[in-house]
């Protein structure tokens, strides 16, 4: 329908209704206009846009590179830190272990020293006691003889200063005493009682 | 549906559909002169497009920042689209940089002039007039032949029309076909594709507008007035389809330019 109208219109007016036939002024204006546009594009617009594009590309690329580098640095730092931490742990463990060993050693030493000291003191005490006992025994032996002689002299009313006889008596008594001491234990008490009588 | 309704209404009331002649408005200088004798609206819009494109990109990039504002971002995105999407992908990494400005100029020149058809009051896609489409196709034609000759010398014409690896006896048949296809049909299809799509879009807008106006205002029949409303609704959908076609044709025109140039550069490679 449009076509029939078109043909009709074209037939009636007989000019420029054919859309394929150009208006040469429009060809010229378009060509010149496009030339002007291309001049501006080539001279100003495209360089600015290309520069912006390259800058952005470089910035993004550079930024990525920078980020990668920072990441690598951070990783290295972390590894370093972890290693140090590991070393620190190991060191601490070692020191603790050493201290424990040392402490045990010190304790053992002290214990040994204390026990040897104690043994030494006990030994000394034993020796002293033995010596004192020997001494006491010796002095007792003398005193008991003299005392008993004096006592017996008073009882019998005569002097038992006659040495030979009294010495024999005392010696015999002391021998008995020794013997009884070797047999039983309660000797000291009975002797003392006997001496007191 | 529209033609049917209009056809039936033609019988009753005499609806006169818009014609190609009506796309040719009277000229501006001299005022209301017959179309084609002076300076017309279409030429004014071509000039307007040059000013708008140059102004937009120059203002957008005047204080270019590494962190772009919205306008700068838009300008850079448009540039990157042509640069990478058309230039680099078609012409190839090695050669494309020298051609980016041309492709960029063509794409935005055609795109804006197409979009003029979708802007109220302007409402005239410049390339619906054959003259502009011819001019652009001619420029591209001259450029790619020039590139081919400069790269390959006069034997470019032989390279362009004699396919390699074809048995000799078929050449008398192939060579004329190649000549016709490459040197005659190519610029015609390049320009007419753009012109025809823009003209048809423009005609549809005019037809829908005048048809709806006629149905609603002049039939006086409620049912037909209803169909007039449907026409308006349908024209809204057509409007968005037109927007898509306007963009697509600008893209196709630029893409073909890149393909022709790439073919001329690489004529020796195949």
Mean pLDDT of chain B: 86
Which sequence of SSEs, written as H and E, runs from N to C of chain B?
HHHHHHHH
User: Helix tally of chain B?
Assistant: 8
Q: How many strands appear in the DSSP assignment of chain B? A: 0
Assign an overall shape of chain B.
globular
The biggest sheet of chain A amounts to: none
Helix content bin of chain A: over 70%
Strand count, sense and barrel status of the largest sheet of chain B are: none
Alpha carbon gap, first and last residue of chain A: 175 Å
Helical coverage of chain B, percent range: over 70%
Query: Distance N terminus to C terminus of chain B?
Result: 51 Å
The residue ranges of chain B in which pLDDT falls below 50 over 5 or more consecutive positions are: none
Number of helices of chain A: 4
Question: Structurally, how many domains make up the residues of chain B?
Answer: 1
Structure classification of chain A: mainly alpha
Pair with the biggest interface: A-B, 43 and 60 residues
* Radius of gyration of chain B, whole Å: 23 Å
Number of DSSP strands of chain A?
0
Estimate the mean pLDDT confidence of chain A. Answer: 81
Helix-strand category of chain B: mainly alpha
Portion in beta strands of chain B: under 5%
Topology:
The complex is a heterodimer of chains A (197) and B (270).
Chain A: H1 2-13, H2 24-156, H3 163-183, H4 187-196
Chain B: H1 2-13, H2 41-60, H3 70-91, H4 100-115, H5 130-152, H6 156-161, H7 171-218, H8 222-265
Protein described:
- The complex is a heterodimer of chains A (197) and B (270).
- Chain A has 197 residues and is an all-alpha fold.
- Chain A has a domain at 17-131.
- Chain A is 89% helix and 0% strand.
- Chain A has 4 helices and no strands.
- Chain A is rod-shaped and about 190 Å long.
- Chain A starts with a helix and ends with a helix.
- Chain B is an all-alpha fold and 270 residues long.
- Chain B has one domain.
- In chain B, helix 3 packs across helix 4 (100-115) and helix 7 packs antiparallel against helix 8 (222-265).
- The longest helix of chain B has 48 residues, at 171-218.
- At the A-B interface, helix 1 and helix 2 of A face helix 1, helix 2, helix 3, helix 4 and helix 5 of B.
């Amino acid at each position: 329908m449009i076509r029939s109208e078109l043909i009709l219109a074209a037939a009636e007016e007989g000019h420029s209704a054919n859309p394929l036939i150009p208006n040469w002024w429009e060809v010229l204006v378009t060509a010149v206009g496009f030339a002007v546009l291309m001049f501006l594009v080539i001279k100003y617009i495209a360089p600015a846009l290309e520069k912006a594009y390259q800058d952005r590309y470089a910035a993004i690329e550079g930024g990525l590179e920078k980020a990668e580098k920072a990441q690598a640095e951070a990783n290295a730092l972390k590894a370093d830190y972890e290693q140090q931490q590991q070393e620190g742990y190991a060191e601490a463990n070692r020191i603790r272990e050493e201290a424990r060993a040392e402490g045990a050693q010190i304790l053992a030493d002290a214990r040994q020293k204390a026990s040897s000291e104690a043994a030494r003191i006990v030994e000394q005490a034993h020796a002293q006691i033995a010596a004192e006992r020997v001494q006491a025994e010796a002095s007792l032996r003398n005193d008991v003889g003299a005392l008993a002689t004096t006592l017996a002299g008073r009882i019998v009313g005569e002097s038992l200063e006659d040495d030979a006889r009294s010495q024999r008596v005392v010696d015999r008594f002391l021998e008995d005493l020794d013997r009884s001491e070797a047999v039983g234990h309660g000797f000291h008490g009975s002797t003392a009682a006997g001496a007191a009588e | 549906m529209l033609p049917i309704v209009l056809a039936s209404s033609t019988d009753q009331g005499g609806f006169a559909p818009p014609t190609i002649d009506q796309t040719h408005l009277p000229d501006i200088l001299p005022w209301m002169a017959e179309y084609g004798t002076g300076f017309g609206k279409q030429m004014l819009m071509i000039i307007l497009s040059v000013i708008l494109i140059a102004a937009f990109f120059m203002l957008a990039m005047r204080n270019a920042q590494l962190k772009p504002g919205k306008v700068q971002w838009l300008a850079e995105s448009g540039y990157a689209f042509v640069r990478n999407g058309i230039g680099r992908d078609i012409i190839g990494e090695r050669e494309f940089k020298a051609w980016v400005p041309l492709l960029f100029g063509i794409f935005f020149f055609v795109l804006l002039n197409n979009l003029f058809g979708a802007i109220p009051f302007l409402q005239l896609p410049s390339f619906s007039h054959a003259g502009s489409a011819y001019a652009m196709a001619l420029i591209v034609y001259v450029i790619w032949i020039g590139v081919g000759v400069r790269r390959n010398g006069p034997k470019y014409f032989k390279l362009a029309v004699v396919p390699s690896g074809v048995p000799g006896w078929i050449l008398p048949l192939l060579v004329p076909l190649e000549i016709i296809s490459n040197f005659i049909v190519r610029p015609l299809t390049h320009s007419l594709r753009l012109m025809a799509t823009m003209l048809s879009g423009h005609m549809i807008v005019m037809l829908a507008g005048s048809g709806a106006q006629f149905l609603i205002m002049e039939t006086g029949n409620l049912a037909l007035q209803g169909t007039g409303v449907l026409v308006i609704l349908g024209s809204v959908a057509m409007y968005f389809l037109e927007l898509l076609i306007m963009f697509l044709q600008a893209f196709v025109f630029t893409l073909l330019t890149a393909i022709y140039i790439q073919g001329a550069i690489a004529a020796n490679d195949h």
